[in-house]
């Protein structure tokens, strides 16, 4: 949307905020937060965004996934924020099996250190509608953002509801944008798609990030400490370039996902909502790739060494500081993997402490 901001404006469609970060800050504000995880104040950000929308004579889009798990009070505030306008709600839905590895990876990039078996088991045991539902922290986190029916019902109280289904693998690349455009009321013709910024990481690389999170926790640097460095610099920018030979995370659709999806689709059909696409698109499909439990220590060590080298080079380019921790020679085996991860943590901790010294 931001890549095509000017084109959309010509067509009467506003993407408010000079950049998406301003929408994120606004949503944090409306949810009652005072600061962005990186420390910046967000107070007043929602009112500023609303004012920009109110001045626009046409349709505007506020799109931040942090709104999905918002509670009734936030939903009510959003619904009543805009002058003389009832907002329309657009909820995008994707099959639940593709969401499991996707969200695990995203949570790791946001500081979690849950193992793959721990996460998959928690998702299963915490799923809605289970008689013996067992709540757990990773399970609660997953379903707060992935229980399609609960989210649709809650946000359906704010205004007319649109459900956009993400097409299955192999569909035309433009189909999702066409469906989203139909829901929002804009013509996607001529829109340019920028290179993706949220590319998947390889299974070994995700494990490096997970172990890095655990190591930083032990050092008293729990997330969001160094959020910009480990999420945006490592997770989003440097690590994707290192994963050409690192197999992606795969998951055969567990049996429970089939019946769960049928139940959710039936309830979604019963809602007062406009469907863009087909709820059959939610049928779980296997995710091609490797089971993260089969990743070897050597693969993790190699990924950690490569990440260490990439981050050190990046810090040198930015800072040209001779005190940056040096190269490593980790050797072989599990202990070598731990040493490589520890060396990567040294770089992150060095950067955090340096920033603290600069501020003071």
From TrEMBL:
Protein name per its UniProtKB record: Recombinase domain-containing protein
Lineage: Bacteria, Bacillati, Actinomycetota, Actinomycetes, Propionibacteriales
């Amino acid at each position: 949307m931001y890549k095509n901001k000017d084109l959309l404006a010509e067509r009467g469609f506003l993407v408010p905020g000079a950049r998406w970060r301003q929408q994120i800050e606004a949503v944090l504000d409306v949810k009652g937060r005072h600061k962005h995880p990186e420390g910046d104040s967000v107070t007043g950000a929602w009112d500023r965004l609303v004012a920009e929308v109110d001045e626009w004579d046409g349709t505007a889009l506020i799109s931040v996934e942090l709104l999905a798990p918002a509670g009734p009070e936030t939903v009510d505030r959003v619904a009543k924020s805009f002058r003389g306008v009832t907002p329309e709600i657009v909820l995008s839905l994707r099959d639940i099996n593709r969401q499991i590895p996707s969200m695990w990876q995203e949570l790791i990039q946001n500081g979690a250190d849950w193992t793959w078996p721990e996460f998959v088991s928690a998702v299963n045991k915490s799923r809605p509608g289970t008689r013996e539902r067992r709540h757990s922290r990773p399970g609660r986190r997953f379903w707060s953002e992935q229980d399609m029916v609960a989210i649709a019902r809650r946000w359906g109280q704010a205004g007319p509801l649109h459900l956009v289904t993400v097409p299955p693998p192999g569909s035309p690349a433009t189909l999702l944008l066409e469906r989203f455009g139909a829901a929002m009321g804009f013509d996607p013709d001529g829109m340019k798609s920028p290179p993706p910024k949220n590319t998947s990481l390889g299974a070994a690389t995700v494990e490096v990030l997970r172990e890095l999170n655990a190591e930083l926790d032990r050092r008293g640097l729990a997330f969001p400490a160094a959020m910009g460095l480990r999420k945006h610099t490592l997770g989003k920018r440097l690590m994707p370039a290192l994963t050409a030979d690192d197999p992606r995370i795969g998951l055969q659709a567990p049996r429970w996902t089939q019946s769960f999806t049928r139940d959710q689709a039936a309830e979604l059909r019963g809602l007062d909502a406009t469907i863009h696409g087909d709820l059959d698109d939610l049928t779980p499909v296997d995710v091609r790739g490797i089971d993260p439990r089969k990743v070897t220590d050597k693969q993790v060590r190699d990924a950690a060494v490569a990440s260490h080298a990439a981050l050190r080079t990046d810090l040198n380019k930015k800072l040209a500081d001779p005190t940056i921790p040096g190269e490593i020679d980790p050797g072989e085996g599990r202990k070598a993997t731990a040493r490589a991860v520890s060396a990567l943590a040294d770089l992150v901790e060095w950067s955090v402490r340096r920033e603290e010294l600069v501020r003071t």
